[in-house]
Amino acid sequence: MSSRRVVVAGGGAAGFFAAIACAQTAPDVAVTLLEKGPQFLSKVRISGGGRCNVTHACFEAREFAAHYPRGEQALIAPFRSFQASDTVAWFESRGVKLKTERDGRMFPTTDSSQTVIDCLLGEAKAAGVKLTLNRGIECATRRPDGHFELRLADGETLDCDSLLLATGGCRVPALGQLAVSLGHTLEPPVPSLFTFHLEAPWVRELAGVSVEAVEASVPGTGLRARGPLLLTHWGLSGPVILRLSAWGARELHGLDYRFTLRLNWLPHLGAEALAAELQSRRASQPARFVVNTPIPPLTARLWEQLVRAAGIPGDTRWAALSRAGRHQLVQQLQRSELQVTDKSLNKDEFVTCGGVCLSEVNFKTMESRLCPGLHFAGELLDIDGLTGGFNFQAAWTTGWLAGQALANASRPRG
Ligand SMILES: Cc1cc2nc3c(=O)[nH]c(=O)nc-3n(C[C@H](O)[C@H](O)[C@H](O)COP(=O)(O)OP(=O)(O)OC[C@H]3O[C@@H](n4cnc5c(N)ncnc54)[C@H](O)[C@@H]3O)c2cc1C
């Protein structure tokens, strides 16, 4: 009978998945999961607006990995071992059926994150994982014999053969301190997946309006994204903004979240096609007011604001729209410039860009390259994905790989 002891630090998605994988693969290993807080899986509970966007319906490893501004290369091989279809099968074989929404996000058919929590808790208990709450690890050292000595918040000490750190994103560097104390480097943390604050009153007046596809870019940087946009009381949100915030997490932090955002409201029309469209309106409806004749798919309210922002008076008819007016309108429709003054957290999903440096981790086993017996999983790593289930998939995949490796590990090395 093995007396190997594995400790998992962190009772989130990655920690649970790793603990279950380890205990189910090697029932003779004693797995203990220590959670610092008063609740397990608290982020799973609030995720996806309480519905838990478990993963994304994209089943090719390289294509899936392209959704990670940090971690893309490192994740390709892990996804070949455990990808979205494995997540779907894992949950379905345990009674949690998932459904796919039009945009590819996958949720439990119950539309309740509690279903996912019940499943993970049930599996962990059934596999014999020892689950403890309110027991955070304060300090970890690796002894010369290869064992880890852990000091807990309540002053108790614990000893284990292998340690998995799945303590979540380090919003502040102190949250990555266990990894640092064991010899690792942290890429500095900055937020990812945030929305943009604007002062422009006309945007705020349009709160609630959404546009199916715009192209957004930040002049002076290579940042550019296309997708649905949502106008809000504070500025701009929606997939295109979240995408830009994720790819530009470091650059936009460097700009202190003050920059010019350029929007093309009609990206499906080239400049010439748009000029021709305006010209044809002059010819076909000369007596109509410009402000009342939106170009689809722009809504009437948004069109009106864009026409006004182009400096075209409300009583201008198409026949009277000057060449300069047409130029201004084209500029406004395809090169609107808005000043972003700050960021807000996206309430549906946010993650930390930064964390344990990926070159220091072996992605076959999730084991540290610097400290044998130490493993990592989840958002603690310098991995973050776009919104849509990619962040949980990184937690499931790295947790599963770490759990398998912990189950199969040989005796501790000195
Ligand atoms: C509001 C919100 C909604 C989200 N919705 C989605 C979604 O729908 N889909 C998606 O893919 N992603 C979503 N995300 C992102 C996703 O929740 C995270 O990427 C994911 O939870 C990371 O899992 P993790 O296990 O690495 O970390 P966490 O879930 O953060 O878990 C880490 C755990 O470790 C504990 N811990 C920390 N330090 C210690 C210590 N020293 N000792 C012991 N325990 C410790 C923490 O208390 C915590 O419980 C959302 C995030 C937020 C904030």
Largest sheet composition: 6 strands, antiparallel, barrel
Count of helix runs: 14
Structural class: alpha+beta
Small molecules held by this entry = flavin-adenine dinucleotide
Sequence of strands across the biggest β-sheet: 12-15-14-13-16-17
What does this structure look like?
Helices cover 34% and strands 24% of the residues. It is an alpha+beta fold and 414 residues long. A six-stranded antiparallel β-barrel has the order 12-15-14-13-16-17. A five-stranded parallel beta sheet has the order 6-2-1-10-21, with helices on one face. A three-stranded antiparallel beta sheet has the order 3-5-4. Strand 4 and strand 5 form a beta hairpin. It is elongated, with a radius of gyration of 25 Å. The mean pLDDT is 95. Residues 9-15, 34-37, 42-43, 46-48, 52-53, 136-137, 166-168, 178, 348-351, 378-379, 389-392, 395 line the site of flavin-adenine dinucleotide (FAD).
Secondary-structure topology with pairs:
Layout: E1 5-9, H1 13-25, E2 30-34, H2 42-50, E3 55-56, H3 61-65, H4 72-81, H5 84-92, E4 98-100, E5 105-108, H6 113-126, E6 130-132, E7 137-142, E8 148-152, E9 157-160, E10 162-165, H7 177-181, E11 186-192, E12 194-198, H8 201-205, E13 210-217, E14 224-231, E15 235-237, H9 239-247, H10 249-254, E16 259-264, H11 271-284, H12 300-309, H13 323-334, E17 336-345, E18 351-356, E19 361-362, E20 367-368, E21 374-376, H14 390-408
Helix pairs in contact: 1-6, 1-14, 2-6, 4-14
The structure holds flavin-adenine dinucleotide.
